[in-house]
């Protein structure tokens, strides 16, 4: 009989920005071959888990009305994988799971992946499963391409679908401004749009990440800024042309660089320091080009408990 923790447990998981997102060939399994450099951001979601007779999911916070409460929620799927490990049998996962969203839904910041990673960490503790980090990473990869990174955090290169991670030497903290769009973009739709753009022309590709790696090792935001790149940006901007104005507003306000984050539509502005980030956020906000603006720093750790673990 496994021991179950009685008190609620809270885990936090970070949003991510892709500093480099090179999209390669379409694979037979429908995914594209990726080379990406992820950075975990201080913007985060929180997951609170409690022992219960059956699974129940609740959501509040940023974009809560757009988050599914049933089995399509990545949190539910994470709980099912953990319940198999816990031997919960046919009745399924026995936990109530409350999601507090800080990360916009369908924003290109991997919010659903963050929630899944936090759920793995929280249920590992609630059900005292003692799964190792590498076992959790294996479950994470089954849940989605970005979930392993949400678990590990920091700065990493991701290859394959993005789920095979290698750590990157990264010095210093970077200061970001994030512009949340009015509405979201579907990740599959953005990839389809890129395939379409590539079929009718040759949109520019971002190339190799070697110089970007050197800039990260040097810890120099000014050196890093011109090296940020995202092959999905053209597709995201085609689907949501208003992003052009948002990106311009960021650079006009003094950001070192402006990129679409992942599949968008969130735009990420790299700033020289904290003061510049505050100035850029105020100025971008005043232009009215986006729904909301937030500042964030990175890198930060991956999914982790923020309440004290149960004494063993
Ligand atoms: P990525 O950058 O990894 O492609 P994203 O940040 O663009 O993801 P998410 O916020 O993860 O997008 O949401 C994508 C879709 O996943 C949503 O439209 C929603 O229907 C579904 N979804 C499932 N679980 C969650 C969750 N816990 N939080 C948010 N969306 C979820």
UniProtKB/TrEMBL annotation:
GO terms for molecular function: 4-(cytidine 5'-diphospho)-2-C-methyl-D-erythritol kinase activity; ATP binding. GO terms for biological process: isopentenyl diphosphate biosynthetic process, methylerythritol 4-phosphate pathway; terpenoid biosynthetic process. ATP binds at residues 104-114. Pfam families: GHMP_kinases_C, GHMP_kinases_N. Its EC number is 2.7.1.148. It is an enzyme of class 2 (transferase). Keywords: ATP-binding, Isoprene biosynthesis, Kinase, Nucleotide-binding, Transferase. Catalyzes the phosphorylation of the position 2 hydroxy group of 4-diphosphocytidyl-2C-methyl-D-erythritol. Belongs to the GHMP kinase family. IspE subfamily. HAMAP family: IspE. PANTHER family: 4-DIPHOSPHOCYTIDYL-2-C-METHYL-D-ERYTHRITOL KINASE, CHLOROPLASTIC. This is 4-diphosphocytidyl-2-C-methyl-D-erythritol kinase. The gene is ispE.
């Amino acid at each position: 009989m496994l021991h179950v923790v009685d008190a609620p447990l809270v885990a936090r998981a970070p949003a991510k920005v892709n500093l480099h997102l090179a999209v390669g060939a379409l694979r037979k399994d429908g995914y594209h071959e990726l080379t990406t450099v992820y950075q975990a951001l201080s913007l985060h979601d929180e997951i609170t888990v409690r022992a219960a007779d059956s699974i129940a999911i609740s959501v509040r916070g940023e974009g809560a009305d757009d988050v599914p409460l049933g089995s399509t929620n990545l949190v539910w799927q994470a709980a099912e994988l953990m319940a198999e490990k816990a031997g919960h049998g046919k009745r399924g996962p026995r936990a109530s799971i409350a999601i507090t969203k800080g990360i916009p839904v369908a924003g290109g910041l991997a919010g659903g992946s963050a929630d899944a990673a936090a759920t793995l960490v929280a249920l590992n503790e609630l059900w005292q499963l003692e799964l190792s980090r590498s076992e959790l990473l294996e479950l994470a990869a089954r849940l989605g391409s970005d979930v392993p990174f949400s678990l590990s955090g920091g700065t990493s290169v991701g290859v394959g679908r993005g789920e095979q991670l290698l750590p990157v030497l990264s010095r210093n903290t970077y200061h970001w401004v994030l512009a949340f769009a009015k509405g979201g973009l579907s990740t599959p739709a953005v990839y389809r749009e890129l395939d379409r753009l590539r079929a009718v022309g040759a949109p520019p590709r971002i190339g190799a990440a070697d110089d970007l790696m050197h800039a990260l090792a040097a810890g120099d935001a000014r050196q890093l800024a011109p090296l940020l790149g995202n092959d999905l940006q053209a597709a995201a901007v085609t689907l949501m042309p208003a992003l052009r104005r948002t990106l311009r507003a960021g650079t006009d306000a003094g950001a070192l660089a402006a990129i679409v984050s992942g599949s968008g539509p969130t735009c990420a502005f790299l700033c020289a320091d904290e003061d510049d980030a505050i100035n850029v956020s105020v100025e971008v906000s005043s232009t009215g080009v986006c729904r909301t603006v937030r500042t964030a720093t990175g890198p930060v750790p991956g999914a982790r408990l923020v309440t004290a673990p149960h004494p063993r």
